[in-house]
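Supplementary Data S3. Sequence and C-alpha cells for construct A.
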Amino acid sequence: MNRTGLLIALGLTLVFVGAFVVCPDLDMRIAAYFYDAGTRHFPMSEVTWATIARRGAMWVAWAFVLPSIIAVVVKLFRPINPLMIRGRTALFLLSTILLSAVFLSNVAFKSHWGRPRPVHVVEFNGKDQFVPWWDWRGTCPKNCSFFSGEGATAFWTYAPAALAPPQWRPLAYVGATAFGLATGGLRMAFGGHFASDVIVSGLVSFLVVWLVYALIYRWPRTKLTDEDVDAWLTRLAWPGYRWRQKKLWGLEVGPSPHIRPGEKTGSQTSSS
C-alpha cells in the first residue's frame, strides 16, 4: 500500500477509461463470449461447481474479517477487557470491507445506477437496452449492474494482503488480484456483470484500501495506535456497559477507565 501501488492503480484507471471510451461496445463483445446464442442463455450459470465457487468466494472474503467482527462485538459488550486482536487491524479490515463491499457498491451505486445486467439486455434475451458503465440512466430499478458488489468483496482481500508480513506481501497482492479476477470472471460468465463492472470494483476496492491504510498507518496527522482504537471503543461502549451493570447487578462501575477525573465525554461525567 505504498505510492507505487497507487500510481499503478491510477494508471490502470486511465487505461480502463480510455479503452471503454474508444470502444464503447467492448462490454458487449466480452459478454458475448459467455453467451450461448443457440440456447439463448449463459450456460455457466447452470454449472454446479461454478455456483459453489461463486458463493464460496464470499465466505472466503468474509472469513478474513470475521475475527475482527467478533473482537469488536465482544469489546462493545465487555469494554472493560482489551480487544482480542490489534485495534488497528480490526478498524482497518472492518472499515474497508464496509466501505468497498457494502456502502459504495450496494448503497451508493447499485441502488441508484440503473445499468441493466448482461442477462437483462435485449441482445442476451432480456428486455432492457444496454447502457455503458458511465450512464446511470438505464432501466434497471434496483440491484443493478454497476458496479459489482461481489467483485468489490473479492478484491477487498487487498486489505488483509496489506497486513501480511513484508516478505509475503507481494505474493499476497497477487493472490488478492487473482481471487478478485476469478470471482469477477464467474459473475461475467453467469451474465451477472459486464467486464467494466468487475474492473471498476477492483479499482474502487484498491483505492479504498490504499486510502484507509494511509489514514490509519502512514500519515502522521491521522495515524493511530492499537491503544487509540481500544480506548475509543471503550468510550463508545462504556455507557451501555455501565447501565447494564447498574440495572442487572446493582454495581456502579464509574466512568470509563480511559477518561481522566473531571473530564466529560458525551453523556458521561465523573460525577454521574
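Construct B, processed identically:
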Amino acid sequence: MIPAGLARTLAWTLAILTALLASPARADLLAEIEQRGTLIVGVKADVPSWGLLDKASGRIIGLEPDLAKDLAERLGVDLELVPVLSADRVSALERRRVDVVIATLNQTPERSKQLALVSPSYYESGASLLTRRKDGFNDWSELRNRRICSRRGSFYNRPIAVEYGADIVALYSAEIALAALRDGRCDGFLGDTAVFGLMLQDPAMAARYEMTLPALNPTGWAVALRREERGGRLENLISETIIDWLSSGLIGRLEDKWGIPRSDFSRRMEAYWSEHSQRKNH
C-alpha cells in the first residue's frame, strides 16, 4: 500500500503534469534565457544550508543555489543568483527580477493560481514551532492568544491563526523572527520542519530551543515560474530536471553536503523516480 503522504505527492504531480500536457505554450522564456546567456534565479539568503549569504566570499551558498547552478549548466548558460525573502518571492517573479525561484516555496492552491509551480516537488516540509526549552509547548492548542513570530509570505500564518488562535507576528525574515524569539518578544517561531531540524543540529541551538509539536500540513516545495510560462518549454525542461535530481540521488547528496539530515521525502522520491525511470527505459 502506498503511504498517504506519497499518494498525495504523486496525485499532485500527476495533476500538474496533466495540466502541462494540456496547456499551450504562451511564452518562450527559455529562448530569452539562451539569447541573454544568463539564467537569473531567486534564492533564499537567510536560511543556513538552504540559501545563505557567505560573508567571507559575498556569494550565496547552499542546497538551492547548487540546484540553480545545476539547472544553468544543463541550459548551457551563466547563473545569476538574486536573494529573495519569503515576502517577495512572488513579486520577484511577477516584476521580472528573476526568471525562476528556487527558495523553499511550498505548493499551495493559491500559489498555483499566481504562478507556474513546476512538478514534481523537489523537497517537502511541514509547519512546526521552534520554542525556548523552558516554555514546554506540548500541543498546538497551547498557541491560543500566544504571540508567535513567523515570516511574511508564509502560507502557514493564516491557518495557524484561524485554527489555533495564535497571535501571528509576520516579520521580514527568518533572522529577525529568530532574534525576536531569543529576546523573548515572541513565544515561538513558526516555520518549516526542514529548516528547524537543521538549526537544531547545532548543539548551542539545541541547548536553548526545541521543536516538540507534531508537524502540520506536509507540503511539497516547488520551483516557480511566472504564470504565463505555464506549459512552456522551460517548465517542461525543469520538470524533467527535477525528476533527474530525485532519481539520481542528487537531492540526497546535497543534503549530505550541506549537513541537512536525510529526509524521508528524498529517500522515497529517489526510490520512486529511479524505479519509474528504469521502467521507462525498458
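DSSP finds twelve helices and twelve strands in the chain. Residues 13 and 120 are 5 Å apart (CA to CA).
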